Amino acid sequence: MNFKDELQARTAEANEVIKEYLPRSRGFSTELADAMAYSLTAGGKRIRPVLMKAVFDLFEGEGWIVEPFMAAIEMIHTHSLVHDDLPAIDNDDYRRGRLTTHKVYGENMGVLAGDALLNYAYETMLQAFGLTEDYEKVWRAMRVIANKTGLNGMLGGQCVDVRTDGKPKSDKMLEYIYQNKTSALIEASMMAGAMLAGADKSEIALMEKAGRMIGLAFQIRDDILDVTGDEKKIGKPLHSDERNQKITYVTIHGVEASMLEVLRFTREASVLISSIGGDDEFILFLIQYLMSRDK
After folding, report:
1. CATH number at residue 121
2. How many domains does the chain divide into?
3. Which residue has the higher pLDDT, 66 or 168?
């Protein structure tokens, strides 16, 4: 199996895990469960659960303990997308080539579906306690995901991003936004995968740093695609950053300098991953693939 086939297989595996942990439609809250499922099954690259499982495998993790966390990290990521698309933030009608959640279910249900996905992620992670007797691994992984999701992570970055729309940004502020809004969940995915596999503190710290580099490269690549990409492949209109008056790395530095930064962060992440040793070839391929993607 070549690496592209392996990526396809691992993405399919992630989709099956997510499907297994979908909320069940029942009673008066059926519409909310349906809106959550609509958001979760809209497709996407499944980068975070795939990376989490790849790191879990890199450190020779055993058992099914990682699966609830794979589903949960995608729920948290999807929650952020559902809320980003709302009229109060980006006001986007399309995501991944189909109507956004609030366009299908209404703005009020879009808010609730995002909230419910975030809460359900923690309900899902708690199920890992039934899959292992090493409860400390579960607590540690949950703790890092909670931290990287909240005020000092993704939500903190999104807050600064929203409150500075259309305003000048320094490189330092933009880096803060990118490190938190985008890198934080990638860091969490890789750290949790390592923790659940039994990696030591120094190895977990390396995964955190590598995740930060991957996240920065990924977000800058997104900025580039918003200007130069193919709308049909991306699944949403081009120039949405410009329409929403967002200052991005591309608007400050231009496409060429941005591409050089993507390469720099990608190399740094690859060096960190390689320093671990073990069977790292798929992760190294995945990093390169993500940074050269066209959607």
Report:
1. 1.10.600.10
2. 1
3. 66
